[in-house]
Amino acid sequence: MNPRSFYISIGLHLGIVVLALVGLPSLNRPLPEDQPLVMMEIVQTVPQTNVNEGSEVSTAKQEQQAAQRKIPPPPPPPPPKPAPAAPKTPAKSTPKAVDPAAEIIPEKIQEKPKPAEAQPPVPPKPKPTQTAAQKMPTKLPKSPPKRVNKLARQNELAKQRTDALTGVMQNLAKAKAVNDDAEKKRREQERKKAAEKLNDSLSAAAGDVLKAPDKPVVGPLGLSDIDRLRAHLSKCWDPPIGAAGSDTLIVDIIVSLDRDGHVLSAKVDNNLRFNTDRIFKVAAEEAIRATRECSPLPLPPEKYEQWKSFIFVFDPRFLTR
């Protein structure tokens, strides 16, 4: 309810009450002719406050007073009765008018601290920038891990490529080594086969010790002469032991003698195998050493033209010590 209308309503009710108390009892009585008019003014005292709406209260009071002035003044009451009635009306009306104002004023006085509350929000404004600045470092470090991950990935890929290349090179080296070994074995087998064919062609039979010389001879050597020569060379010959196939390894030595049976030269017949086969080379060197060490050889001088140059076959199956 608007305070202004509230005060106007109070003023009207008070006027009606005053009219009822003062005017109605004296309607039937004759008014005195020379009785002076008494003007009564009701003033309500309200404590002054610093509330902004004080002007509205004062304007309401002024309107109430103006309304009371406009009411025609009632005839004065008789001396005994109207005197107590007049003071009662302001006493009853004043608390009713003052109490609402008194209740409203304290509530509005408490609203004064509001301007002080509006000041604190001003300093916290830079906080978002600080928090944002503090949060930025947490987001920025995300880029270095990506670079680190990229570098690590590149290093890993490079390592994998290196390992792959190393593996390929190792495989190629192994394959090359296997091929080299296979080629070497194949060549050795071919050389052995060629040497065996050559030996087979030079040996007329397994038990023959002497082969036909390049020049025709006067007469053949007897078995006694061959057995004597074989027994003599067996004393100086040490066949290789422990080598693979040494018990069947045959070495042909070309021997040249003088008339007294002294060895002029002794050389291996198969130079190709001598230069390629290590085991054969060892056996051939041992045969040459035995031939030179057993010089002179026991051969008949009258048959010099037959034995001055011949090939002696060192065969472990027929030479015994």
Cα shape: rod-shaped
Radius of gyration: 77 Å
- The CATH class assignment of the largest domain is Alpha Beta
Structural class: mainly alpha
Task: Characterise the protein shown here.
With 321 residues, the protein is mostly helical. The protein has two domains: 3-25 and 38-112; 186-321, Fusion Protein Consisting Of Minor Coat Protein, Glycine Rich Linker, Tola, And A His Tag, Chain: A, Domain 2. It is built from ten helices and three strands. It has helices at 3-22, 54-70, 82-109, 114-118, 127-139, 143-202, 223-236, 271-276, 278-293, 304-307; strands at 251-257, 263-268, 309-314. It has a three-stranded antiparallel β-sheet with strand order 2-1-3. Helix 1 packs antiparallel against helix 3 (82-109) and helix 7 packs across helix 9 (278-293).
Keywords:
about 325 residues; mainly alpha; Fusion Protein Consisting Of Minor Coat Protein, Glycine Rich Linker, Tola, And A His Tag, Chain: A, Domain 2; three-stranded antiparallel β-sheet; 10 helices; 3 strands; rod-shaped
